[in-house]
Recover the amino acids of this structure.
């Protein structure tokens, strides 16, 4: 039986050109922002620091965080066996990218990372996450 809700956090990482980082996900198909589920009792800022280390091998501190938002975005997972939750709710954290940091995918979360202008996101298959991602970019003031 599927669990109802997964609390999670996503990073909107912005570089000096105003582009955002997305990655191709071999696990889920399509493109997505760096994101992940929160552990029991974990604050979403601690969660994004942990997730970026786990997924991209990068260590950030709260100084790298430009803005965090109390408003959340969410989506319903497709009714497939690989998803153990029915839906996901994400806090958004906007991070200013430090070009001296190397982003290196650490597991099967991403097989390709790309920088795109926020307005280009609809050109990429974000599947069931599309509306939530568009809303997140608007919350961040990027659309």
């Amino acid at each position: 039986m599927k669990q109802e809700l997964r609390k999670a956090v996503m990073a909107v990482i912005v570089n000096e050109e105003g582009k955002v980082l997305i990655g191709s996900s071999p696990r889920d198909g399509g493109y997505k922002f760096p994101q992940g589920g929160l552990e029991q009792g974990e604050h979403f800022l601690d969660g994004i620091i942990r997730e970026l280390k786990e997924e991209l091998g990068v260590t950030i501190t709260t100084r790298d965080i430009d803005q965090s938002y109390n408003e959340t975005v969410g989506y319903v997972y497709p009714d497939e066996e690989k998803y153990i939750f029915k839906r996901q709710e994400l806090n958004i954290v906007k991070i200013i990218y430090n070009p001296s940091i190397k982003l290196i995918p650490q597991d099967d979360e991403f097989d390709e990372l790309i920088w795109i202008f926020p307005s280009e996101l609809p050109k990429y298959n974000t599947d069931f996450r599309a509306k939530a991602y568009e809303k997140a970019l608007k919350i961040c003031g990027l659309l």
